[in-house]
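Troubleshooting entry. The earlier prediction with zinc ion gave an output that would not parse, so I re-checked the input for stray whitespace and re-submitted. Clean input:
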Amino acid sequence: MSVDRYARHLALAGFGAAEQARLRAATALVIGAGGLGSPALLYLAAAGIGELVVSDFDTVDVTNLQRQVLFTVADVGRPKAEAAAGHLRELNPDTTVTPVGSRLLDAELLAAVRQADVVLDCTDNFGTRFALNQACVQARKPLVSGAAIRYEGQLAVFRLDRPGGPCYRCLWQEEAEELESCRGNGVLGPVPGVIGSLMAVEALKIASGCAPSADGKLVLYDAVENDWRQLKLERDPACPACGAEQ
Ligand SMILES: [Zn+2]
């Protein structure tokens, strides 16, 4: 590991060689290499995380390039996981990048979550979000969750590795509340960039232990008004995902 590469981390109060080494030994599972996953993956690789497991079963489309800054024109038509892995390896050869080009389900998803130190939900549908949350509850892994649409973004951290806190499903109960997609609604390009960057901040703090994570709250960003709000999250004792676990 090059000390020079991480000199601006090592100059930070609270971030020494031990924190950088902890980061180097850590694995992040990133589900979704799109508008949120692009900045999250770029920052995690640049920061020197040990391993990134990148799961995305989609291919790069020309409409992705307006916000998915991990990809270039030459990637259009290529599988996202593989294209992402190529760019991330070029950015930092210290980081092992494992692309997963199929949809992780059930036992495979749980196994991938178990191998991770932190999980980032960069997806855009409730079905995958609930399944990923359930796997993180079961495996007791910290989950960093982000979303962005139109001019709005949101971020939440669920420390499911610790007892007593809420999970994603405590917050969102009904699968009927279909998560709206960027396809029909549009999204201002940098909005997922803002949220994906915040996801990287939280994941880096969890993986390195350099600062406490911002868990137990939902952060809402309104890009029209440049307005930030925070809501405190409470665990729902009747939650179908974590109610029986804690
Ligand atoms: Zn819950």
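This one parsed fine. The longest strand covers residues 143-149.
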